[in-house]
UniProtKB/TrEMBL annotation:
This is ADF-H domain-containing protein. Coiled coil: none annotated. It comes from Rehmannia glutinosa (Chinese foxglove). The keyword Cell membrane does not apply. SUPFAM superfamilies: Actin depolymerizing proteins. The lineage of its organism: Eukaryota, Viridiplantae, Streptophyta, Embryophyta, Tracheophyta. PANTHER family: COFILIN-RELATED (PTHR11913). PROSITE patterns: ADF_H. Residues 24-156 form the ADF-H domain.
């Protein structure tokens, strides 16, 4: 359903304001985004990364230290603004084997501006393709849609 939503939003943007559609589809990804993601993936130097769109490009807004918690991560997401984020989620398998999964989170709270939601929705797939190694994707409009229970249910 997310793909249908994104397609609908992109279609709406094209009809509503073609200049916004061009900006969204041509959203630049700052090199630092890919570099920091590779550090998270290969060196595990970050627990999470929060990205934001600023001046027609996606940039790194916050890096979470490896010792930071899930609560630190959720506190980094603004209550009324859209963001992208990646989170390195550690867990134990049923056999007590430690593992991790890299989650991509598209944070689009209900209280965010409609224009912002449309720009983030239409840029998401292209940005996600730049981050090679995403294992699980979540889309959340409120904190309950990305609670720890949701993370745990998606790793199995």
């Amino acid at each position: 359903m997310a793909c249908n939503f994104c397609h609908s939003v992109t279609t709406f943007i094209n009809l509503w304001d073609p200049s916004v559609a061009n900006a969204a589809s041509g959203m630049a990804v700052h090199d630092d985004c890919k570099l920091k993601f590779m550090e998270l993936k290969t060196k595990r130097t970050h627990r999470f990364i929060v990205f934001k769109i600023e001046e027609k490009q996606i940039i790194v807004e916050k890096l979470g230290e490896p010792t930071e918690t899930y609560d630190d991560f959720t506190a980094s997401l603004p209550a009324e603004e859209c963001r992208y984020a990646v989170y390195d989620f550690d867990f134990l398998t049923e056999e007590n084997v430690p593992k991790s999964r890299i989650f991509f989170i598209a944070w689009s709270p209900d209280t965010a501006r409609v224009r912002s939601k449309m720009i983030y929705a239409s840029s998401k797939d292209r940005f996600k393709r730049e981050l090679d190694g995403i294992q699980v994707e979540l889309q959340a409009t409120d904190p309950t849609e990305m609670g720890l229970d949701v993370f745990k249910s998606r790793v199995n």
